[in-house]
């Protein structure tokens, strides 16, 4: 049984399954486990790992339209290196500070693989924004840009491969720069503020952690709708353009790679101006909500359900 | 660096470190990672694992004197067996139901070892009960009995060893009974209701998950006090007496084994009657709070800081 089949099985048992975070009273709660081999490429610093792991959970809180209150992490590693541990905690705390949440530590644990579970808790002022409310005619929008994480992976790979040939000292410096750039791209701002600004208008929302294409399939399934996307409106990150050779390649990676933690959201057409005024990051209009039978298309072609499958 | 040294290092970084759960506004939050090899003996059913993992986090909420609101779990296993998964979820949900919390699922994840991280969130009506408020002359009390988990381990071991010699069929039946008994003992009631009843009176409180002896050392360090314990007042579980040969052995296991998730609490002497009336489980008075320089003693002998070190 794969993860999606298992989730489907549990949907019958757990009434809260199937959104970015669970809602209980005015609280939203979300938890995620990450592993070194699947989630932290070689070269990821512990500071970046702390930032990213906690940031991913905060992004789920953002996708519900909630305020971020607190995050915890359970940190497991083969040994507790003081510097590693402090770097992780500082990364976790810095991303929390950025969105006004408290990072309060958690559990330490011995384990053969570096493994982190983060949990974030948010508080709702309005109703939570579900995945299921997208309505025909709504605008399909996304915050920020897509492709930063895909670009980061390229820089991690470059840093690991090394220069090859030429002056060794120079190549080492280059590797270090590439690794630094990768870590920088891997740190992202969870869209808490944007989520709260979007919440009063949004009919459906989720984060783009599985990639835009997969997110649209998930929103489409939850809302019983299709989407038409204009490829020229997909906001491709500059950093991704820098590491891809063609515009098609960049578009492909921007739509399917995922791990960008932007918000994918549907809003009534009339709300766009208000949303843009209230939201601190750029909002791109990718297209619109269409009937379910029209499917999910980009420039008239089916956009398949491909994307990042979280390990 | 071991876990305790690492925790000490982090105490400077995290103002919330060092209690059973962190407090943010009126919320308490706690997270724990558990692994098959260190936390779930062979024979532990997934139902029991779900119960126990979530129960351990709920116990931390109880130790703060808070109401239990919601729990989540991240569940990682080499493969997703539908029956295993449902059993886990049912165990998790049943222990939540028992204390009035919502179990809302969480994350599924592939991993080489069965690993679970649970997070529980509680809400405070009063101030949280810290570990640091024990005052000279206070009574030292514990809820329920100690030794159920130690007894469970004996039954697990018996079931695994098999009968040895004699009729095989009969021994298999015996193994099954021992395993069932072990699982039953491994399921415990988190002391949420007791914690809330104790909270208005308690000067210091924590759960006994590291064993009574270690808990007293931790409370003593946090409160700057010592304790004198009367061995004859330690409430030893019947199930532990059944599997130990001498009273001394039973006492030793009851004070050092841990994993029982009872509440260790100090209260002013005058509050005992009110506490006993309000608390739904028996409260044993083990002894009293003494000056720090008198140390931690049982029947006049030093009670060393030995106990369960969580992996």
Automatic annotation (TrEMBL), chains A, B:
<feature type="domain" description="PurM-like C-terminal">
    <location>
        <begin position="137"/>
        <end position="293"/>
    </location>
</feature>
<dbReference type="InterPro" id="IPR016188">
    <property type="entry name" value="PurM-like_N"/>
</dbReference>
<feature type="binding site">
    <location>
        <position position="32"/>
    </location>
    <ligand>
        <name>Mg(2+) 2</name>
    </ligand>
</feature>
<dbReference type="GO" id="GO:0009030">
    <property type="term" value="F:thiamine-phosphate kinase activity"/>
</dbReference>
<feature type="binding site">
    <location>
        <position position="308"/>
    </location>
    <ligand>
        <name>substrate</name>
    </ligand>
</feature>
<feature type="binding site">
    <location>
        <position position="259"/>
    </location>
    <ligand>
        <name>substrate</name>
    </ligand>
</feature>
<feature type="binding site">
    <location>
        <position position="30"/>
    </location>
    <ligand>
        <name>Mg(2+) 4</name>
    </ligand>
</feature>
<dbReference type="Pfam" id="PF00586">
    <property type="entry name" value="AIRS"/>
</dbReference>
<feature type="binding site">
    <location>
        <position position="20"/>
    </location>
    <ligand>
        <name>Mg(2+) 4</name>
    </ligand>
</feature>
<keyword id="KW-0460">Magnesium</keyword>
<feature type="binding site">
    <location>
        <position position="60"/>
    </location>
    <ligand>
        <name>Mg(2+) 3</name>
    </ligand>
</feature>
<feature type="binding site">
    <location>
        <position position="131"/>
    </location>
    <ligand>
        <name>ATP</name>
    </ligand>
</feature>
<dbReference type="GO" id="GO:0009229">
    <property type="term" value="P:thiamine diphosphate biosynthetic process"/>
</dbReference>
<feature type="binding site">
    <location>
        <position position="31"/>
    </location>
    <ligand>
        <name>Mg(2+) 1</name>
    </ligand>
</feature>
<keyword id="KW-0479">Metal-binding</keyword>
<feature type="binding site">
    <location>
        <position position="207"/>
    </location>
    <ligand>
        <name>Mg(2+) 3</name>
    </ligand>
</feature>
<feature type="binding site">
    <location>
        <position position="32"/>
    </location>
    <ligand>
        <name>Mg(2+) 1</name>
    </ligand>
</feature>
<dbReference type="Pfam" id="PF02769">
    <property type="entry name" value="AIRS_C"/>
</dbReference>
<comment type="function">
    <text>Catalyzes the ATP-dependent phosphorylation of thiamine-monophosphate (TMP) to form thiamine-pyrophosphate (TPP), the active form of vitamin B1.</text>
</comment>
<keyword id="KW-0784">Thiamine biosynthesis</keyword>
<feature type="binding site">
    <location>
        <position position="60"/>
    </location>
    <ligand>
        <name>Mg(2+) 4</name>
    </ligand>
</feature>
<comment type="similarity">
    <text>Belongs to the thiamine-monophosphate kinase family.</text>
</comment>
<comment type="pathway">
    <text>Cofactor biosynthesis; thiamine diphosphate biosynthesis; thiamine diphosphate from thiamine phosphate: step 1/1.</text>
</comment>
<feature type="binding site">
    <location>
        <position position="20"/>
    </location>
    <ligand>
        <name>Mg(2+) 3</name>
    </ligand>
</feature>
<dbReference type="GO" id="GO:0000287">
    <property type="term" value="F:magnesium ion binding"/>
</dbReference>
<feature type="binding site">
    <location>
        <position position="209"/>
    </location>
    <ligand>
        <name>ATP</name>
    </ligand>
</feature>
<dbReference type="InterPro" id="IPR036676">
    <property type="entry name" value="PurM-like_C_sf"/>
</dbReference>
<feature type="binding site">
    <location>
        <position position="210"/>
    </location>
    <ligand>
        <name>Mg(2+) 5</name>
    </ligand>
</feature>
<feature type="binding site">
    <location>
        <position position="39"/>
    </location>
    <ligand>
        <name>substrate</name>
    </ligand>
</feature>
<dbReference type="GO" id="GO:0005524">
    <property type="term" value="F:ATP binding"/>
</dbReference>
<protein>
    <recommendedName>
        <fullName>Thiamine-monophosphate kinase</fullName>
        <ecNumber>2.7.4.16</ecNumber>
    </recommendedName>
</protein>
<keyword id="KW-0067">ATP-binding</keyword>
<keyword id="KW-0418">Kinase</keyword>
<feature type="binding site">
    <location>
        <begin position="106"/>
        <end position="107"/>
    </location>
    <ligand>
        <name>ATP</name>
    </ligand>
</feature>
<dbReference type="InterPro" id="IPR010918">
    <property type="entry name" value="PurM-like_C_dom"/>
</dbReference>
<dbReference type="InterPro" id="IPR006283">
    <property type="entry name" value="ThiL-like"/>
</dbReference>
<feature type="domain" description="PurM-like N-terminal">
    <location>
        <begin position="18"/>
        <end position="123"/>
    </location>
</feature>
<dbReference type="GO" id="GO:0009228">
    <property type="term" value="P:thiamine biosynthetic process"/>
</dbReference>
<keyword id="KW-0808">Transferase</keyword>
<feature type="binding site">
    <location>
        <position position="107"/>
    </location>
    <ligand>
        <name>Mg(2+) 1</name>
    </ligand>
</feature>
<feature type="binding site">
    <location>
        <position position="60"/>
    </location>
    <ligand>
        <name>Mg(2+) 2</name>
    </ligand>
</feature>
<keyword id="KW-0547">Nucleotide-binding</keyword>
